[in-house]
Amino acid sequence: MDYSSYSIPELQESLSNIDKHAYPDRYQKLLNELEVRKKEVEQYQQNEEDKFHITVHSRLNILAWLQIITCIGFLYVGAASLFEQVTLLNVAILLAASILNGLAGYLLLKRKKSGFHLSLFNQVAQLLSLNLGFIYYSYSGLGYVAVVLQDGISLKASLFDPSLHLLWGSHLGFGVGLDLVSLFFVGLLCSCKNEQDTWKK
Fold it and tell me: Is this structure's pTM higher than 0.85?
C-alpha cells in the first residue's frame, strides 16, 4: 500500500480506522508516512486550530453584540413602559435585564472570563419558559425560536422584542418552551470554555 499520495486528513483517518493487529505492515507504513511528513502534519493541525478559533471568535462576537443590542432594547422597553401603568418592580426587572445583557455583552467582547460566566448565565436563564398554573416565567433577548409544548407542540418565534415576564396567580395554564437560539449559544459557550488562549482574567 502506497500512502505517499494520501492527504494528511486521509492519513489520519486511515490511522484511526486501521486494525493494527490485523494489518501490522500497513499500520507501520502509515506511521512512517506521517513521520516523514511531520512538518506538513503540524502545519495542517495549526491550520485546523486557526479555523476553529476564527469560527469561535466570530460566534462569540455575534453573541456579545446581540447582548449589547438587547441591553438597548430593554432600556427602550423600560422607557416606553413609563407611559403606561407599571409597577416599580416591573421597571426594576427591566433595568436588571438591561444591565445583565449590557455587562455580559461588553465583558464577552473583551474576552473576560467573567463575560463567559455572565453570558452563560444569561443564556441558560432564557432556555426555558415555564407555565405551571400558578407561576409563569418567560425571558428572551433580542429574538427567540422556541419549541412550545402547550395544548400540543408548536414552534414560536420573535425578533427585536426583548421581554422578561414573571407572573403568579391562578389559572395561568400549563406549558413549557425551549428556546433553540439560547440552546445554540449555550452549546457555543460550553465548546470554548477550556480554550485558554480565548479568555483573559
Answer: no
Q: Residue 173 carries which side chain, given as an amino acid letter?
A: G
How far is 90 from 82, CA to CA, in rounded Å? 10
Residue-wise pLDDT tens digits, 111-144: 999 999 999 999 999 999 999 888 999 999 988 9
d(CA 85, CA 75): 17
How far apart (Å, rounded) are the C-alpha atoms in residues 180 and 174?
Answer: 20
CA–centroid distance for 36 within its chain: 40
- How many whole angstroms separate alpha carbon 29 and alpha carbon 129? 56
Residue 26 has what pLDDT? 87
CB 200 within 8 A of CB 113: yes
Cα(91)–Cα(85) distance, rounded to whole angstroms?
11
For the chain, report the end-to-end CA distance as a whole number of angstroms: 51
The C-alpha angle 98, 100, 105, rounded to 5 degrees, equals: 95
Q: What 8-state DSSP symbol labels residue 112? A: B
Predicted local distance difference test score (pLDDT) of residue 63: 93
Q: Which of 178, 145, 143, 147 is nearest to 160 (CA)?
A: 143
Alpha helix segments (H runs only) across the chain: 8-17, 24-36, 38-81, 88-109, 113-127, 180-191
Query: Which residues of the chain, if any, have pLDDT below 50?
Result: none
Backbone torsions φ then ψ of 164, nearest 5 degrees: -145, 115
